[in-house]
Specification:
The complex is a heterodimer of chains A (813) and B (455). Chain A has 813 residues and is α/β, with parallel strands linked by helices. In chain A, the strands form 7 sheets. Chain A has a 7-stranded mixed β-sheet, with helices on both faces. Chain A has a 7-stranded parallel β-sheet with strand order 6-7-5-8-9-4-10, with helices on both faces. In chain A, strands 26, 27, 28, 29, 30, 31 and 32 form a 7-stranded antiparallel β-sheet that branches. The N terminus of chain A is likely disordered. The longest helix of chain B has 28 residues. By secondary structure, chain B is α/β, with parallel strands linked by helices. The chains are: A alpha/beta (813), B alpha/beta (455). Chains A and B meet through helix 18 and strand 20 of A and helix 6, helix 10 and helix 18 of B.
Chain lengths: 813, 455
Amino acid sequence: MSESLAVRGAGEARAIARVREVLDGFAARDHNSDMLTAIRRFPAREAQWAGFPEWVNGKLVSAYTAKGVSRLYTHQAAAAAAVHSGENVVIVTPTASGKTLCYNLPVLSAILENADTRALYLFPTKALAQDQLAELYDLNQRLDNRFGVFTYDGDTPADARKAIREKGHVVLTNPDMLHTGILPHHTRWTRLFENLRYIVLDELHTYRGVFGSHLCNVLRRLRRVARFYGREPQFICCSATIANPGELASRLLESKVTVLDSNGAPAAEKTLVFYNPPVVNRALGIRRNYINESARVAQEFLKRDLQTIVFANSRLHAEILLTYLQQANPHLPGKPETIRGYRGGYLPNERREIERGLREGRIRGVASTSALELGIDVGSLDSVVMAGYPGTIAATWQRAGRAGRRSGSSCAVLVASSAPLDQFIVRQPDFFFGHSPEHAFIQPDNLEILINHLKCAAFELPIAPDERFGDVDLPDLCARLAEAGFLHLAGENYHWTHEAYPADTISLRSVTSDNLVIIDITAEPNVVGEIDFSSALVFVHEKAIYLHGGQQYHVEHLDFKERKAYVKRVDVDYYTDAVRYTQVRVLELAASERGNPSVTGSEATDLNLGPPKSASAHSHSHGDVLVRSQVVGFKKIKFFTNETIGDGKLELPENEMHTTSYWITLERPLLELLSFSVSERQSGMFGLLHGLECVATLLLMCDRRDLRTAIGERLSGAAARDDASVVVRREDAVSTNAREFFEPNLYLYDAYPGGIGFSEPLFRAHDLLVQKTRELISSCECRWGCPSCIGPVGDLAPRAKEAALAILDCLCA
Amino acid sequence: MPVSADRFSRLAALKPARPSAAGAGGPRLRPPDQEDLLAQFLGAGVAENHFGEHLAIRNWYSTPEYAEPSGVTLELLSRTRDELLSRKTRAVLEDASRWLFLDTETTGLAGGTGTYAFLIGLAWWDAGGLQVEQFFMRDFTEEYSLLQEVAVRITERPVLVTFNGKSFDWPLLENRFAMTRSIATPKLAAHLDLLHPARALWKLRLGSVRLMELERRVLDRERLGWHRSEDVDSARIPEHYFDYLRGGPVAPLAGVVRHNQMDLRGLAALFGKINRMLSEPADRLEEYESLDLFGLSRFFERRGDSTRAQVACAQALASGLPGDVRVRARKELALMARRRGEHERAAGIWEEMVRDSQDEGHACEQLAIYYEHRAKDFPRAIEYAKLGLAKVKRQRAASLRDAHDPALAAGFARQEKHFIERLARLERKARPRSSPAPRRGAPGPAEPKANPALW
């Protein structure tokens, strides 16, 4: 038995027994064994040890020994050796395997050997940097404060900044601060850049999609500035398990990276359970609500005093779960609160307090969003409940890893929703357990992103003729920026010639970098939280019920100009859910392919509408699109029963996004072949899109939030007027918009401005996508359609499933 | 501070009549090429050093006239609090020939590494007037040679006088020097930024303390010797430069150069004005505007000269101040008196305030404190606490009714709470110890100890 398991106290052994008790309880209720679709036990693994390398500074070895670390895990020793030999490395390890030592050891040793050495640590969030700061403070104290370590972010007081720039050997920051606060002011950081030897990128797997594409460009700028001061820093990266850590790292760093993925850390026994809520109506394919079920499962653990974390996939669900769990575990007067919420939007101090409460065991249960998925230190928890599939295999393992971080006795339960992806995962567990986690894609040469960073780069240093910046024709881009008035060629170099400070207008994460504060005006005004601009439209529109810390607030007034939302505490039995309205317009067609002929040309011309159709009546394409979306109203939904008890209209600003999309066009002749009513046909299309989306996320192995769908009408005979599409809302399609024919485009688009490269792979995989979607829908046992294939039947016309299958038959023909 | 013989000799050296054009110091300028329209237009010469060349424009002006800085002024301007200056610094500071007025024109206000100073204007006292020298880069390639020249000038005259230079011009130049990686940032002996005193002195009266506004309303515009009627709009300066870089017209740049000259001369004139005001004897203060005097008093107070602060504040009140400022001035005067231990005088001022004003919770509170702790007159203290409570209550009601300002109301609520606590304490203190309901557990012996003097 491994050392850490051997020293485990008797109390934890009892915890194992209680976990088993809960699992046995589930099994006893599972008569048809279709509830627990998988129970996988992962045995404990012993630690593999290595000694400290001899080049490590003796004082550092003593400091670690005093902390109780007298030898290293093999992967820590391997990482240290690779860093020492000057390689860029990426260390791939699961949660709680001592990865911070992998970078702290070589970096601090180098600083102790030469006090001029400087290192920059980048974390994706401020909270993670704070967490690491505590660890480094502790080491530093044992080393008589020989080095300076500071966080530098938006919260750093102005009067402390100068000292940090001069005295910080290790500066902990985030990509956003590097982008707006450090690089454009690099002359203030001369001391750091002249001695910059190491750059640490923790949680590398979070840098994918648009964020990763931005980060890659920020790193281009960082290396450029470092080169100006004569430095080529070395990179040390840490990543959770994803399919392609080496590829991601070398794309981000644009140089060779050594991958270290063996793990010498011990692991405790762990059980991962798939839980499918029981079916309550087989005909309609309705299962028990997974949020309620998750709360029940979590309560089983809490009842036995097992410290539990419940993960929800949205802020709203996290708050609903918190409400349920707080009701089940009422806050006793005079006692600390045992159940808390955790998500972005809670104020930093509140979050620190919750993290501490979890570590110290005061807090027994926490309902969280993905915010706790990252390596924030909250100690070891006994059990994890995931309300819904987190969207990716990697994130599922990440969340499951929150249980039993340090010792044994852990269990993770995935409670499936009725979404197709969830159902696919829990019904075919072998797919999940047999597949590698997802790939992380980035598209750093996305022109929109790259040009923005090129502007920042020119602001930081004039662009010299022999420079490279990504895989683009730099002289040509510079010439274009000069024409637009941003740059000016003087001698050989391009200089920034604009009054603006370009980094200020570019957010690495979302379209706007603005935050709104949420102010409780029930009594004396009091700031209860913050929310980013685009989420604000969804969560704090007027009349919304905003949930924060389990408390309901009614939004009285949303002041966009002042960036404030005024709320009042209320106690009602419903919550609100925003209704979004999305419109897609094709801007530029990259490629298009017609499907197999299914209708003859003569038949098409007979219809005497629009230009004659060519041989086939459907096509698939990819290209650039403009997506407009707007929150147009909201629904009031009753707690526990989830019935809609009211709705309202809203007038809110529109969001616009340029992105890339893949789409299928269904032309009139194809539709005419189908013997369905207009509304059945339209329902069929929505159902088909529902299925396509599910299969597409599986094929791409991407996060389902990275891809969105919409149906737009390709105006009949509008070829000359380009592919302008009008939006079709589901409600409209089914009821009011009962025109006989409209030729729809079924869009699957990248959920990020500029796109992150899913459209072309989907276009290429079109045949497979259509075929697999047909399999998904035709093999589903439901009769009329269900959430697991074409969507919940309540929203669809009868025969929608048939219609969807008929369209698929045409597409596959 | 005694004026040394040495200073008189320096003064004499500054006095001779206007020097010849070449006497401006610095290296000889080469006349511009025939085709250099800009240089012709600006009347500029070409300066050269081992980094390359740039344009230099030199002018001498008889106004503003040289103003001898007083020791007191320098002391007040150069220190931010009441720390003492080193002897060496003081010596350089007092030597007016080491002063350099500086003002830059830049490609933007954002700061950071991508903002350039394309025109750097310098000026110093010479021959009783002002010698102005401006360096202009015709393109980014000329930046290094321009900075090199500026570094030489600053090394010669290391006391910088600017308007907002501490937060804008100087950090920007530090950036520019750092970006060269070859020209060291010159060391300053001192940096006098006139924005801060100007804000203290005139913000109250003028609202805005932009240099142009000060020229118009504080300095004697008629005697300045220039006028701003055709001045360029400073917000458009970066645009003019960018236009020129892209082959646009040179005429607007002449406007920019002239604007920079006027700013430098305005800066020198402003220094003279502040210098005079700060060293004015008490009996001459009444010639000043009362609002400026109140500003002066606050400036003195902030820089640790409380004696003169009190004099200026009293004079401001005597000359008459508008209502809301009068309240503030009295408040400050009373607090200054209290700080100096003149408690009766402070109480007198507060009593005046209570008589004159409807809403004076602050003065009531101060009087309650005064009578409780100093005069030991509890009934008076209670009287003022009750009066204060009534006033604050009325204000809170009004703030909720008229202003709908919950934050303001919350402030009044806090004040109310303090008054109520104070009243409770005062009444406890004032109650005779022989009252009919003696506290349990504290029997008899306390009674004889009660001090009859309190009653």
